[in-house]
Structures are given as C-alpha cells and as structure tokens.
Write a structure and sequence with these properties.
By secondary structure, the protein is mostly helical. Helix content is 75%, strand content 0%. α1 packs antiparallel against α2. The relative contact order is 0.15.
C-alpha cells in the first residue's frame, strides 16, 4: 500500500488463495488418513488394560481427541481462508470494474471554482 492506494495482482492473489485452499484440503486428507489410523490403533488400547494401561488411557484419550479435532479444524480453516481470498479477489475486481464504468459515464464538464461571496 502506497499513498492510500492498494495494489493487487489479481492472478497472483487468486493463485495464492487457490494454493491455500489446496493446502487445507491436503491437511484434511492427512487428518483423515493418518489421524484415522491413530484413532483406530488407539482404540485397540495397545498400552494394555491393566491399572497402568487404564491410567494411561484416561490421560491419553483427551489429548488424542483434542489433537484430532484441532487437526480437522485447521484443515477446514485453511481451506476456507483460501476460498475467502479467491472470493475477495473476484469481488475486488468486480467492484473496481464497476466503479471504472460508472466514472466513465460521468460527463466531463469544466466547472469554474466556486466564487466567494463578500
């Protein structure tokens, strides 16, 4: 931003938004695949079912759920952010083009500066 103006490279910004959305999809896919494997493996309780295993289970389960939920939310949020960037670029271009058309429709008249009354 320079002197009150915003410079936007729409192609670059759109590509960046699309890349961000794809990164969110990749994070979500990894969550589904790897996170699903983690949940599936822990459901078998490989730490055992004795007192020590039960104590571990009690502590572990909450952390696992929090991590998997955060991982899922991260993927969804990054995907949404990328989609928002793309929509924002489209809206900015449409607004700029509409404003340019409206300004082009204003008749160009030479106006004298207002006179000051004495």
């Amino acid at each position: 931003m320079a002197e009150g103006q915003i410079w936007l490279d729409p192609d670059r910004a759109s590509r960046g938004g699309a890349d961000l959305a794809m990164a969110g999809e990749a994070i979500s896919a990894a969550r589904s695949e790897v996170g699903g494997e983690v949940a599936q493996a822990s459901a078998r309780r490989p730490w055992g079912r004795d007192e020590i295993g039960a104590a571990f289970e009690k502590q572990y389960r909450g952390f696992e759920e929090t991590l998997l939920r955060a991982w899922e939310n991260l993927g969804r949020s990054i995907h949404g952010l990328g989609a928002d960037v793309v929509r924002s670029v489209v809206a900015t271009i449409e607004t700029d083009e509409s404003n340019a058309r409206q300004l082009g429709e204003i008749p160009h008249q030479h106006h004298s500066p207002p006179r000051h009354w004495r």
